[in-house]
């Protein structure tokens, strides 16, 4: 009986993920890859990628202290407001906490809004959560850096 149960037990452990420890380096790379994809999506106004990698209850608190949910953020991008030429994150620091991660860094942006060019840098704090589909961004806060 034990010989028959052993393959079944091993299969359950492998499928449930218990047999494979989490790899911190892979988590870091995975978060950075999704973050880079989100930056490219903001540049291109590609809302499908944002829907895929932002949680349904995503919230952004901008540098003026205004909060906006997923629908409002997507609607602005669909209207091309603002129109980003550059949207890049750099200097990221990732701290893992189980199925959550906190990422801090700098976002550099350049583009046009209401017909006027702009360029700015922001210090950001992002809160990521792991689900069955990988890492998703749940909340973000940005503070403008002095010029």
Quantity of strands, as a count: 6
- The number of distinct helices, counting runs of at least 4 residues, comes to 4
Spatial gap, N to C terminus: 72 Å
What is the topology, as strand order, of the major beta sheet? 2-1-6-5-4-3
Q: What is the averaged pLDDT score?
A: 86
What fraction of residues sit in β-strands?
A: over 45%
Flag low-confidence runs: 1-20
- Shape, principal axes of CA atoms: globular
**Proportion of helical residues:** 25-40%
Query: Describe the biggest sheet?
Result: 6 strands, mixed
Rg: 19 Å
What is the H/E order?
HHHEEHEEEE
Structural class, by secondary structure, is alpha+beta
Account of the 3D structure:
- The protein has 147 residues and is α+β, with helices and mostly antiparallel strands.
- Helix content is 35%, strand content 46%.
- A six-stranded mixed β-sheet has the order 2-1-6-5-4-3.
- β3 and β4 form a beta hairpin.
- α2 (24-44) runs antiparallel to α3 (47-53).
